[in-house]
Amino acid sequence: MGIVISLEPHRIQKEWKEEKRLLQDLDVREVKATAEKVFTPVFHRFEFPYSFLEEACMDLALEAFLSGGKFSRYVENRALPFTFQLQAGAAAGGIAEELYEFMQCWVEDDPGCYYKEMKEAVDSFIMYWWKRGLETGVRKQSTDFRKR
């Protein structure tokens, strides 16, 4: 009689270790500064620091950073193959869409806010942090490879 072993706990543990390694290079102050720089011009009547909008930006920048870091395992010759570019674009686009929808609900009554400007800011912000995660993951992998 054979024994059935679930690999799910092992996969989750491996994923947590990978995320922990990536997060060692993430500076929360930089995420806040980037969010403030990108979004303060978009929301003219809004004080950014310590707001619920800052919290949403932090959460989704972190998610984008980790997503980029996870895609780093597919990088070949300093580039992401085309098949993974499509998946990566969908992943980053989904994160950006989540932040955009959140902001859209918040600014419905703000006549000074332009949705196109806000969408561009959201896309820029999320792609910045996604690429930073990808770069961090690639750097960590090359460091690990040299240690072997």
TrEMBL record:
**Domain of life, per the record?**
Bacteria
Q: Which Pfam families match?
A: DUF2521 (PF10730)
Name of protein: DUF2521 family protein
Among InterPro entries, the record links this protein to:
Uncharacterised_YbaK
